Every structure is written in structure tokens, then in C-alpha cells.
Amino acid sequence: MRPPTYHGAIGVTTTSPMVQEEPNAQTRQGAQDVANLGPLPGSLPSKPPKSVHPHPDDDNDHHRENERTSPPRKRPRTQAIPRAAPPPPTPSTQPPQMSPSISTNDRVPAPAQPSARFHIQPVNQFRGASASIKRPQEVVHFSYDDHHQYKEDESGINYYCPPQLGADLKEGYNTFRHYEDETDPHLDSLLRAVMSKEKQTGKKEQADFVTWRGMMTKIMTAPFDMFAEFSMFVTLRDGTIYIEEDFPARAAQRAQEATRPRPKWQDPNMPDHKMMTYWGYKFETLSLLSTPPPDTPKETIEARPRAPVSNYAQHCSIVRTGFGPHTLLLGGEVDGLSAPKPSSPTEPIPWIELKTAESLPPNPSNRDILKFERKLLKFWAQSFLLGVPKIIIGWRSKLGILTGVQELETNKIPGMVRRGTQCWDGNTCINFAAAFLGWLRSVVTEQGKVYRLKLEKKAGIVEVGEVRDASGGIVSKEFEEWRTELEQRHGDAKEEE
Fold first, then answer.
1. pTM of the full predicted structure?
2. What mean pLDDT is reported for the chain?
3. What contacts 87, CB < 8 A, 6 or more positions away?
């Protein structure tokens, strides 16, 4: 029997034979509604969605599969509890202090004493036609080598070649080379690449916001993820707001997850969280080549199932984009290319994003579709922000066997969800991001001070407060010195004129 794929998608799908469980007959009707979808619009929908909040096991942060299982609910919640509209956020003119005097290189989370709040709920306040957006265009790029050392080149670029189906995603787990930052990386690599570009052109890469793609993904998807939580640090330098992850909080969370025991209700024979995270990296190894497929020997292509798995080497793209009146420089890792990179900098780059998901049953229930379309929210947002036009999903069994591959066009995903469960809406995400960025600019107004941007799980309110006597670290000293030098050059040039 051939396992099915997501019926709302457009693309070629291949599968390998698998034995599937028979579906519950009473759940077939809801799935049939999705299967009978007609042509999908290429633009984002304007129809407001039903308020469906994602389940915590749908988290897929930093483009890796991060699935957790939970006891089945009798029925998924499909509508949010009505809430009264909160008053509009108003930033305080006297922000209270949030923590003792510390350096940003050694920050620890402090009790929240917000100076301003931004209400996410009700999400209907952000519905309607989307704010104007600017297509992401690459400004500069860089790579990390096999030792995760910064390189100003394209050595980290990979090329997509369809994987062999039936591969075991568990294979190679014991020899996996897993890189995780042990010290706070701040925005150093991103700013280093921008600085290199400015030295070449002699022009400043001006933007209202500079951050990693992962930070904007968390912000953009917050309206439809009631389990979302994040902590970030923010600072203002020369008219630009820089946003970075709260590294100490993230490190503490990782340590807690590493020591968390397996839930008693979870089958001990099922893969754990670490193994399921590895499956995403393994799928990349099965699907990518370091050279274009036509230039790669057949033996190399066929040997990918036995190739070592590592996430040390990466390639990162830094793009300029915009939400409404706000311009952004975003940096993020890209998985590979589906075709050669165009020579013209104005042409779209055929990047691809690789994801894994559990195979849908032969006759998927409404809940099966709902769970997958919730995951599509972050799939879409991550690719949308960097201008990645195609997402390739590796369908897998519960035990990690690759059963199929499916391609989704990024710009069509919101329409698919609108015609499916309506559990999120692309226009609303864009409008929320534009409104939030405008509000943040009105709050972060004091040059050089560091603020904490925080969203608690299920809170529905983003809070911002000042970190007292922080000494910086978000913007590297090297980058600040370069910007000072660049301003002096421009000043000298004007005097000569």
C-alpha cells in the first residue's frame, strides 16, 4: 500500500511500499474535505482564520524536527476561548529596572518587570489584507566549515538530489557530530559578513532591524501559537535595532530538556526526542550533495545513506526584506539549492528547505490534517522570511523509515491551509509582525541600552523591560569600530566636496 501525502500540496511525490494501520471510519469525512481541494491561489488569503492554537509537539524551531509526543486528546480544540479586546499598548516613559548590573556576556534571566506590553490577542485585530512586504534579496553570505569556522565564501552550499526511499533515518546516530554553541554567539557572524560587504562597497547597509531569521520566525508565528515562548535581548545603535536570542535562557532550557525523564505514558520502545531531532539532520545528508548532481559521480550519490552526519558545516544567507515601513537585515542558514545560483543579484535564488514529518495515514482524519497544517506555520514562516521558494518534506514512519518525499511551494502554503483547517493565516502573521516592529521602535528609544523582549507560554502578551547597567555585547566591538570609521570616511568625503 502506498502511504498518502498532504493532498493540498502541489508537487511530485514518490513513496516506498509501507504497511499502514487502517483508519478509523468515523474520521474520514473531515479528511475528504481537504483531499477535494481545488486550484490554490498564489497570494495570501484575506479571510480570517478560525482560532486554532498549535499543540506543543508541533514546535519545529531553527528548521530542525523537534517533535514531542503527548497523550491523545479526545478531540482537538478548534476554536479559541473568546476574549475581550485589551487596551492598546502604551510604552512607559520611565522603564523600571529588571536585573542587577551584569554584562550581556554573562546575563541570566531576571524576574520580568515590563516597561511596556504588546497584546497578541485577539488576533482579529491583525486580520485583513497584508501589509506591504518587500521580497527578500540577498545582500551577502558566508559559510561555516567542517570545524564550524567562519568562511567568507560559498563552500557551505549544497545541492539537492532526491534521496533513496526506504532509508533508515536512525542509521549513523552513534557517530553524529552535533554542534551547539557553548558560548553566546550574539550576532557576530552576521555583522562580520555585513561589515565585509560594506568594506567592499564603501556604503552602509542601513536597516531598521538586524537579527537572525529564527528570532523573526518566533515573533511572526506568535499569533497562532499559544504555547510559544521566547526571550530576546534588544539594543538600539545609530537608528538600528539589533535583536538576539537570550542565550543564557536558551542554554538553561537545553540543559533542562537533556535531563528531563521520559513521560510515563510514552512507549519506551518509541524513539526519544534526541533521536527524532537527529532524523532531520539525517534527511539532509540523504538529500544533499556538495556538488551539482550532474557533476557528482553516481557512486557518491548512492553512498549517501552511509555518509557521516554532521551539522558543523553550514551556509548562511543574509537578506534585506521589509514589513510595511520597516526594513530588516535577516541572516539564516539555508539547506541547499535546487538549481545553480543565478549570476544576477536581483534574481530569486532557488534555495530549498528540508523538513521531515510523520507520514499521514491512508485516510487521514481531521486531526491528522490539523496537526500537519499547524507544523506548516513554521515551515512557511522560516522559508518566507529568507525568500526560500520551495520546501521539501521527507515523510517518515513512526520508527524513522523514509517513506516518501513531497515538494511544497512556499507562497502557496497559506492558501492550502485556508482551504483546509484554517488554523492559521498568513496575512495575519504579516500584519502582526509589521505592527509589532512599529511598536518595538516606539519602546526601544534610548541609544546603547539593552532591553529584554519576553513572551511567556500561554501569556498572549509580549513584554519589554530594560536590563540595568548592561555593558553591551549584542553588537560586536569590531562592528562598532568599523561603523565609526565608515562615518568618518563619509564625513571627510563631504568636506572635500
1. 0.79
2. 82
3. 119
